[in-house]
Design brief:
The protein is about 30% helix and about 25% strand. By secondary structure, it is of the alpha/beta class. A hairpin with a 2-residue loop joins β9 (about 150-155) and β10 (about 160-165). α1 packs across α7 (about 230-245), α3 (about 95-110) runs antiparallel to α4 (about 135-145) and α5 (about 170-175) packs parallel to α6 (about 195-205).
């Protein structure tokens, strides 16, 4: 069993598929009753070095973990609320009318698709119509190409997103690590999807580690693994308990990825 002093570590969590189970639609997720308390106590034990890094908006993330309020990077790092509560936009790029029109025309042709408007990004979920995956991807790629490289396509679990090309979760983690109380610590990045891989890479570059959620055996830059969101929440609870019983040391009891 390895132990780590909580004063040395900073924690970065994805939401969907990491802290909560993925649902059929973005609005259908069930928030575990214990989650806000777990995050509040972990933030307390790390002097506030605990952040959410999610594809959802900051507003949506706040609703999901209410009443606790952490530092948050929303829309994959396109918008950020820093530890001091100040908000920052990490890109000047904005989706054009042509992009929005193309996505909504796709939705009109295929009502089974769910379009999630995140302001800086549009996500097209095809969980209810898996056979449309190729058409969704091809449509978004064509739109992005017409916009001259200002936007990119981000694949995820049963979703493709079109978003500004200069944002990602790795850059968001780095921005947090340059600010107190994250500065000087080692980052632990925890996520379940392709969108989290750059966060894992950045965490390792800064002397920390990535923890992948799920045993799907997909290639990953993470070096540790937890089975599912329930295991993540149990792991957080174990960290807090270890901190109480081991004189201020926090345990990382994960499985190698």
């Amino acid at each position: 069993m390895r132990y780590y002093n909580p004063a040395e570590w900073a924690f970065f969590f994805d939401l969907d598929g990491t802290l909560i189970d993925i649902a059929a639609t973005p609005d259908a997720v069930a928030i575990p009753h214990e989650l806000p308390d777990l995050l509040a106590h972990l933030s307390l034990h790390t002097d506030g070095a605990c952040a959410i890094v999610t594809g959802r908006s900051i507003e949506a993330a706040d609703r999901m973990v209410s009443p606790v309020k952490l530092a948050v990077a929303g829309v994959h790092g396109g918008e950020m609320r820093m530890p001091d509560g100040m908000h920052a936009s990490c890109t000047k790029a904005r989706l054009t009318g042509a992009v929005r029109d193309a996505v909504h025309e796709l939705r009109r042709r295929h009502p089974q698709l769910i379009v999630e408007n995140k302001g800086l990004a549009l996500a097209v979920h095809f969980r209810l119509a898996p056979h449309l995956a190729d058409e969704v991807r091809e449509t978004l790629e064509q739109v992005a190409m017409l916009e001259g490289g200002a936007f990119c396509i981000q694949p995820g679990k049963m979703v493709f997103e079109i978003l500004p090309a200069n944002i990602d979760k790795g850059r968001a983690l780095l921005a947090f690590m340059e600010e107190w109380p994250f500065r000087g610590r080692r980052p632990i990045a925890i996520g379940d999807d392709l969108t989290d891989e750059r966060m894992f890479v950045m965490a390792k570059k800064l002397g920390g580690l990535g923890v992948r959620v799920g045993f799907d055996m997909a290639p990953s830059c993470a070096t540790e693994c937890l089975e599912d969101p329930r295991a993540v929440r149990k792991w957080i609870s174990g960290l807090l308990q270890q901190d109480k019983t081991s004189g201020g040391k926090t345990s990382l009891a994960t499985t190698p990825a």
